[in-house]
Amino acid sequence: LSYIESDKAHISAAEVTVLTASGQTDYSGRVEQFKGHGNSTWARPKRSYKMYLQQKNSLLGMDKCKKWVLLSNVMDDSMMRNKLFTDMAKSCGLENTMDNAWVDLYVDGEYRGLYLLSEKIDVNSENFDIGDLEKETKALNEEEINSFERYEYSYGPLHIQGWEIPEEPEDISGGYLIESDYEERLIDEASHFTTTQKEHFVVKSPEYASVMQITYIALFVQEFEDGIVAEDGINGRGLHYSQYIDMESFAKRYVLDEISKNLDSGYSSFYCYKPKSENKLYAGPIWDYDTSLGNHGGWGLVETLSDPTGFY
């Protein structure tokens, strides 16, 4: 564990046993990768981790998944916010919300605390089937796709970064999983783009997007943005911004973020996805609500209440 925690890039194999509350063995097997997880939380004493099993398995009654996250909730003393709002997202019908469950974590026999075991946001999981463009691209290329040359293009504030991958599927309409994030975090990501309004997006899947793929999804989002900023809501192609998104999922996500006072809404950990053969972006899956409900560090609840116009 000291090796893993010395650098978030460090990876180790492991063995895992998952017990139910009654002490029955729910799962036991090999962990292909055990490594660190998180950005701002990584510097805290109680770390979060990623755990990749050798194959998809159900844990504690959740959907079959290969990639799991152990969330420490270190920034939330109640440790309830992430669980509360994923449950609420499921209740309001936000599709593809990740399952999670409380667990007590022991590593090498030492108790590490209360954690939230969650499915990792991953297009390979059974409950998030939007088309696996990365898997299709890998199947068409003999070399590892991360071995190809990086491609960057800028036109004013519009910037894209992808990969010069020689072979790709005929249908590149999906699935795409993108995350709105801070500009300074883009440097650590394989594929990303910035719109003309300087909104920054990481392409989480396919992680190594080809030139055609990164151009496709970047232009799709750019056309949506062009409609948003237009006075009449119509972009240069004559299309209204509402034609680019699933309005119901975005409305539900908006209400959820208003109720939760989600600090990251629209800025970080804000995911959208575009399924294969569909011409709309969907809001979700939701992620990272530990700084919601006034729990946002230096700003503090007192400052927010004393100056309600100053932050929200």
Keywords:
6-stranded antiparallel beta sheet, globular, 13 strands, 7-stranded antiparallel beta sheet, disordered C terminus, alpha+beta, about 300 residues, 6 helices
Secondary-structure map with pairings?
Elements: H1 2-6, E1 11-19, E2 25-37, E3 48-57, E4 65-71, H2 81-91, E5 100-107, E6 110-119, H3 133-139, E7 150-155, E8 158-163, E9 176-180, E10 192-194, E11 200-205, H4 211-229, H5 247-260, E12 270-274, E13 282-283, H6 301-306
Antiparallel strand pairs: 1-2, 2-3, 3-4, 4-6, 5-6, 7-8, 8-10, 9-11, 9-12, 10-11, 12-13
Could you characterize the architecture of this molecule?
The structure is a single chain. The chain is α+β, with helices and mostly antiparallel strands and 312 residues long. Helix content is 20%, strand content 29%. It contains six helices and 13 strands. It has a seven-stranded antiparallel sheet with strand order 7-8-10-11-9-12-13. It has a six-stranded antiparallel sheet with strand order 1-2-3-4-6-5. The protein is globular, with a radius of gyration of 20 Å. The protein starts with a helix and ends in a 6-residue tail after the last helix. Mean pLDDT is 91; it is low at 298-312.
